[in-house]
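I am sending you the entry underneath: sequence plus fold tokens. Let me know what the token row says about the fold:
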Amino acid sequence: MSTVPHHCQTAAKKPRVRAIGTESFAKLVLKSDVFVDKTLLIQEFLEREDEVALITRPRRWGKSLNMDMLKCFLAIEVDAQGKALPQPQCLHHKIFAGGEVALGPDADQVKQLSPLKIAQEYPDLVRHHQGKYPVIRLGLKDVRGRSYLQIENALKEKITELYREDRYLAPYRAQAAAGSLKGEYKKLQRYFDETLTREDIVNSLRLLSWVLNKDFGQPVYILIDEYDTPINQAYLKLQDKAEFEKVLELFRELLGATLKGNPYLAQSLITGILRIARADLFSNLNNVQEYTLLDQEFITFYGFTQLEVDELLTQVNMSTISEEIRRWYNGYTFGKHIFYNPWSIMCCLGKEGALDHYWLDSGGTQLIDSVLLSDAIQPDLQTLIDGGALSTSIMKQISFDDITELEGLYSLLLFSGYLKPKNPQEKPSTTTYELSIPNYEVQHIYERWRMRWVNKKKWDWSKRGWHKL
């Protein structure tokens, strides 16, 4: 089964749909009665053994949730003092392998969890890997600013938050408070005191991986989520090109120090919307394997298949017919599969079947707005709105300068989820694809762009007429 019903030992009631936007896998399993089980991603990630895997997908397509799922599976669970817990006491072990979990202080607040797909199909993998490694997870979606200094400070805050809240470091925080850190561990003092230099930021994850490897005797998994958000925001907000280059250099050095020749690293997973060309963030790394929505690897773990949506609909009663849901949210062609937008589906279920532009309203389009309002692009937009397709080459790595050219723009629209490739599996070695709008929800944004252009032209003509009077 792709969707997983978990049952509480309480009276039957309306199934709970996951809290929209949650990035906590444990919360999803415990607080939702139905969800789509994507745990086989863990098996593929471990079996492929890429030292550094970069997976790019559109926003709101489950990247952060899958990242947390991987952390829940791999991470050694510890108590508040940083001491490893026996596995029978570990919540995350029960989440994957199944078991009884207390949801609150009352004896009747108990949930019986069924084994997830990873435990059903790969029990040996669960036995050998679940809860066995120290894991570092760093999310970068909130690292943004209008100057290099603001971005550096935002990253500094993320790093200090990691050192301040990570349970693994509880013994060292106590030692730092007592002034008893010794030897190489004295380097931790500045992280706890939040007095970091730029060099401290760059070396932060490598230092932490060294500490955790020493403590647990196991290689460390490093998970970096939304790596490209600070870069995209810097491109939009920073007017000074030299400042923007300083931002690129900061993240280039951080990734290099963390991932290049790190002897404490087991594997790393990095996620983002696209790989940014000419930023050279991975230029010094020869161990990065990239997986886009045009590749077969990991393809079924982001987005919902027809079978998965059908199973969801059987468990959540609502009046909206499945054909309407398909028209609104289906149609994304990735690899050999066709997918529904997962964010929109879960919002729709959570709103008892109300159809709306959930995904479109969940984020901005600043990076491409100005280009799509240009006169030159309007004939192509009209072709797309009319149900036609555009034939173009696709660039897997896009620079910001490329966005002003059609090839780069359409590549960005594809990887951002605004276009779909037609039958990519029929031409696996090609770089040229037929691109079209995936569904009704996305068509709305093209119509909105088209109307904004029309209104802009009307305003321009109005101003010209005024000047003639």
Observations:
- The chain is about 45% helix and 15% strand.
- The mean pLDDT is 89.
- The first strand starts at residue 7 and ends at 8.
- The radius of gyration is 24 Å.
